[in-house]
Amino acid sequence: MAKCSVCGGPAVAFIRYQKRYLCRDHYIQFVEDKVRRAIKRYKMAGKGDRILVALSGGKDSTTLLGALSAVRDDIGFELVAVHIDLGIFDYSVKSREAARRLAQSLDVPLIEVPLKEVIGATIPELAKKSRRPACSVCGMIKRYVTNAAAVELEADAVALGHNADDLAVYNLKSFLTQDLEAISKLGPRTDSVEEAAVGRIRPLYLVYEKESFLYSFLRGLPFLHEECPFVDNRQMEVRLKEVVNQLEEERPGTKLQMVTKLALRIKDYPKPRGEIRRCRVCGLISSSEVCSFCRTTERALGKAMGPAVREYIRRKGVELGLIPRVKNTATG
Ligand code: SF4
Ligand code: ZN
Ligand code: ZN
């Protein structure tokens, strides 16, 4: 049996691009070191910050919360999590259970936002009423609710679970379709817009997808293995993922090179045009007079629901003692 290159114990994994074997404990440490390094190198968070994690119950956000909770005391930030119950049949019931168990086991306060209760409709219902594909409505709703939670809870950043594989694929796709403005948003962090949008960070920037999965597995963190019934495996991303994996197979370390070089050049890509505005109805960031969340809910449900979402989160934040926020910047 192969031995850990650090301690000589039984190895559980081989890191090809480093040509070394690692045992369980050193593997966990290896992933957490990557997260710590990415946070420091790309200035994602510091002492006294409040970081919000959108916890779906799937493997990526589970690894994200697990690894962030392991490094939070070293860096001195605070964690809060939000889970959006999308109302996608049994899949959402199981996702919610996994998110609850994880947040409880890691001692992270969790705000649950059940869409049916808060806005009166689930994702399948909204998709039907607005005659749009479920994923397009769902992506917009998740972005809106997560940002609303971050603004209400005065978070300093929203942590996203994108790993190095995801970013390599998005980068390639954006390049092939010449959507260079989209590339400008693929870096390790984006900035906040005061009181309208909270900046986003990607602490798993240097972590491979396989590493993310094995980390959660080895730590025994609860996550849902099932995929959403609406997932579309014919997307261009799926094919590009195979290409990136093939390149990694031939030249180990390719994915890491892709994302670290991207981080170096991110400022050279054009930023999205158009002025940044605030939604007339809910006050959060928007590219037009009314944000797409308020517009979609107004059309499909007869009422713009942005203010109701903000109010719900504010109430839950007060109940959990997260609002008003007391900044903890004490040293030691
Ligand atoms: Fe939402 Fe589509 Fe993802 Fe399902 S697959 S959770 S509908 S974005
Ligand atoms: Zn070891
Ligand atoms: Zn709005």
SSE layout:
Elements: E1 13-15, E2 20-22, H1 24-41, E3 50-54, H2 59-75, E4 78-85, H3 89-106, E5 110-114, H4 115-119, H5 123-130, H6 134-152, E6 157-159, H7 164-176, H8 180-183, E7 200-201, H9 209-219, H10 236-250, H11 254-265, E8 277-278, E9 285-286, H12 292-301, H13 306-319
Parallel strand pairs: 3-4, 3-6, 4-5, 6-7
Antiparallel strand pairs: 1-2, 8-9
Helix pairs in contact: 1-2, 1-9, 2-3, 2-9, 5-6, 6-13, 7-10, 7-11
The chain binds iron/sulfur cluster and zinc ion (2 copies).
- Major beta-sheet overview: 5 strands, parallel
**Mean pLDDT score:** 95
CATH topology: Rossmann fold
Domains, number:
1
Percent helix: 40-55%
Q: Provide the gyration radius in Å.
A: 20 Å
* CATH superfamily annotation: HUPs
Structural class: alpha/beta
Report the span from N to C terminus.
Answer: 43 Å
Strand content: 5-15%
Quaternary: single chain
Cofactors, ions and other ligands in the entry: iron/sulfur cluster, zinc ion
With strands numbered from the N-terminus, the spatial order across the biggest sheet is 5-4-3-6-7
Unreliable stretches covering 5 or more consecutive residues: none
CATH class: Alpha Beta
Named at the architecture level, the CATH assignment is 3-Layer(aba) Sandwich
* Principal-axis shape: globular
Figure out the total of helices.
Answer: 13
Q: Helix-strand pattern, N to C?
A: EEHEHEHEHHHEHHEHHHEEHH
How many strands in all? Answer: 9
